[in-house]
Amino acid sequence: MLAVENISFCYPASGNLLADVSFSVNKGDVVCLLGPNGAGKTTLMRCLLGINIVRTGSIKIRGRNIGDIPTRELAGDLAYVPQATATVFPHRVLDIVVMGRTPHVGLTAVPSDKDYDLAEAALSELGISHLADCFFSHISGGERQLTLIARALTQRAELLIMDEPTSSLDYGNQVRILRVIDKLAKQGYSIIMTSHFPNHAFLLCNKVLIMKNGKITAMGTPEEVVTDSILSDLYTTRVKIVELDDGVANKLKVCIPLLA
């Protein structure tokens, strides 16, 4: 689905912000990108979206270099889900979601009944149809995040790039969003998500990328990569991975920071 091969990136008159970054994403993968602030996660996301042009290496979707794919066609392959923020414009939730159809609507055209049908189907898929006529700025943070995911689904792209999808959400809404991501992966979507919560990797990801100082320093399954030593080095604080029994014959791993 996605192949990133030895990419590097820098702004003029600055050193490399990314250096020799390589990884791949297959259909149905949920990839968690972990790293401290300033590690280069946002820069990498911007490269994957084609906003930042890499200095060396290549980024390919289905074998095609993203630089060779027209913008509208690229939008049919990947969709971006930013962190949820309020908007100053009085858009209804349905209007926000139907914006996902922009790549499929002519420059001088307006969304069709079919476009609205797809938007309403996405709202229904995520269980928020009742919010369709609410103002986006008036709903909760968790509901705004679900709205942005619905917009991405309406775009009909199979690769979703999510920037800290549970940022600033309460515990219940975090779990709600994680359940949605897990459901989408089981439906065949490929997902790359950044997170500041290593536990997310154990809960729903099958691949983890550890990023530090613009480089991928470790890559593998959560069991291989999310370890005491790697996380302690990554965040420069003592971290312990603990295994718990969930009471249903399953073992769960959780990450606990140590204050002493």
Descriptive overview:
- It is built from 9 helices and 12 strands.
- Strand 11 (239-245) and strand 12 form a beta hairpin.
- It has a single domain (2-219), classed as Rossmann fold.
- It has 260 residues and is of the alpha/beta class.
- Strands 6-7-8-3-9-10 form a 6-stranded mixed sheet.
- Helix 4 packs across helix 5 (141-154) and helix 5 (141-154) packs parallel to helix 6.
- The radius of gyration is 19 Å and the shape is globular.
- Helix content is 31%, strand content 27%.
- The model has no long low-confidence stretch (mean pLDDT 91).
- The protein has helices spanning 41-48, 71-75, 93-98, 113-125, 141-154, 171-186, 199-204, 222-225, 228-235, and strands at 2-9, 18-25, 30-34, 56-61, 64-65, 78-81, 159-162, 190-195, 207-212, 215-220, 239-245, 251-257.
- The termini are far apart.
Question: Which properties best describe this structure?
Answer:
single chain, 260 residues, alpha/beta, Rossmann fold, six-stranded mixed sheet, 12 strands, 31% helix, globular
Summarize the structure.
The chain has 260 residues and is an alpha/beta fold. 31% of the residues lie in helices and 27% in strands.
At the fourth CATH level, what is the homologous superfamily?
P-loop containing nucleotide triphosphate hydrolases
Coarse shape: globular
CATH-assigned fold name: Rossmann fold
Question: How much is the average pLDDT?
Answer: 91
Radius of gyration: 19 Å
Task: Tell me the helix content.
Answer: 25-40%
* Count of extended strands: 12
CATH secondary-structure class: Alpha Beta
Q: What is the spatial order of strands in the main beta sheet?
A: 6-7-8-3-9-10
Count the domains.
1
Order of helices and strands: EEEHEEHEHHHEHEHEEHHEE
Runs in which pLDDT lies below 50 for 5 or more consecutive residues are none
What is the CATH architecture assignment?
3-Layer(aba) Sandwich
Major sheet attributes: 6 strands, mixed
SS element count, helices: 9
Structural class: alpha/beta
- Roughly how many Å apart are the termini? 44 Å
Strand residue percentage: 25-35%
